[in-house]
Amino acid sequence: MSVVAGCSLFNGLLLLADCRGTITRKNQKPIYVDNVQKLFVVTPNIAFGFVGDIKAAAIVFFELPNRMNTRIKDSARFHPASMLNWFPRYLRYAYAQLQFRPGPLNVMLACIIRDRPNVIERAKVVALMERFRLGKLSYERSWLPQILIKILSTPPEARVNLS
């Protein structure tokens, strides 16, 4: 089983993946390797990870730099909103072009827009503060992150700039 997980943070994203892979061959025992790269950085603001058929991923992602380099002069193509439009189409196209019957391949795309901070719901911060108060945290601490205090000190309807 493979895992790629993403988390939205106050000032960006966190993307994690395991590194184990299984290579299957006809009429032979599977080979297990523990150094498979499943996360790829596209730009400082964009990364993706995959789980699934390693052979299919290698072929699909091998062509990706060529596709991207032909458009490198068009920086709008690397804006996260643009990536969300063309990247899934490219993946569907490249996967459909494979000359063999591949297993499943799942991809997670992680993007941030630097001039737009993440939106944190005030109700989630209130729930987190309640966990602080009740001592139900993963580890005990005697301090509060300043960002939580900043969010809680504003009226519920206000937007808070987290940068």
How are helices and strands ordered from N to C? Answer: EEEEEEHHHEHH
How many domains would you count in the coordinates? 2
Backbone CA Rg = 21 Å
Quote the beta fraction: 15-25%
Mean pLDDT comes to 81
Discrete helix count: 5
Which strand order spans the largest sheet, edge to edge or round the barrel? 5-6-7
List low-pLDDT spans: none
Structural class: alpha+beta
Helix content: 25-40%
The total beta strand count reads: 7
Distance between the termini: 37 Å
Plain-language structure description:
With 163 residues, the protein is an alpha+beta fold. The chain has 2 domains: 4-111, no CATH class; 119-163, no CATH class. The chain is 32% helix and 23% strand. The strands form 3 sheets. Strands 5-6-7 form a 3-stranded antiparallel beta sheet, covered by helices on one side. Strands 1-2 form a two-stranded antiparallel ribbon. Strands 3-4 form a two-stranded antiparallel sheet. Strand 3 and strand 4 (31-33) form a beta hairpin. The protein starts with a strand and ends in an 11-residue tail after the last helix. The relative contact order is 0.15.
